[in-house]
Design a protein that fits this description.
This protein has three helices and five strands. By secondary structure, it is α+β, with helices and mostly antiparallel strands. It has one domain. Strand 4 and strand 5 form a beta hairpin. The longest helix is centred in the first third of the chain and has 56 residues.
């Protein structure tokens, strides 16, 4: 009778250990699945943040072109401001929630990095990251110019290229 009771206790302990082992395995699979979902969501959120930054960048006073003309006000980027920010990118780094920002005037035959005469390419910010996914958007770039004592807005079409770290 005692042996039978001990046998039943052993069976019950074995079932409890087996049940515990099953729940541990099920929990590990669940945690693995959730981890993969978090990684996917992180990538999507990073992409959305970059695309949003591309659209918000045009409205930032640090980049936007101020003009009396209502057609270009708040829509275009100021080439002169970009030049200043690119030369002092370390000071403006906290403004940028991305890995890199590059600006390139479109319809240029070749890339001429700035500062150079007739340059068409600025690397505004680069965090030094290697594994970067880039997204781009078209925008207009304007600057004040004057010829024969007449001041006017000179605008060009260009691309803003923003990079985020790929994971």
């Amino acid at each position: 009778m005692v042996k039978r009771a001990q046998f039943r206790i052993q069976q019950m302990v074995f079932m409890i250990v087996a049940l515990l082992f099953f729940f541990v395995l099920a929990g590990l699979f669940f945690i693995g699945y959730q981890y993969k979902q978090v990684q996917l969501n992180y990538g999507e959120l990073q992409k959305e943040q970059t695309i949003t930054f591309l659209s918000v960048m045009q409205g930032m006073p640090e980049f936007s072109y101020s003009s009396k003309d209502t057609k270009t006000k708040g829509v275009c980027l100021d080439w002169d401001k970009i030049q200043v920010i690119a030369s002092k990118s370390d000071e403006f780094a906290p403004l940028f929630p991305v890995a890199s920002i590059k600006v390139l005037k479109a319809f240029s035959n070749q890339v001429k990095p700035c500062p150079d005469t007739d340059c068409n390419y600025y690397e505004i910010y680069d965090s030094g990251q290697k594994n970067v996914q880039e997204y781009e958007s078209y925008s207009c770039f304007c600057r004040k110019q004057s010829e024969n004592e007449i001041s006017y807005d000179k605008c060009d079409l260009g691309r803003v290229i923003v990079g985020v770290i790929r994971k």
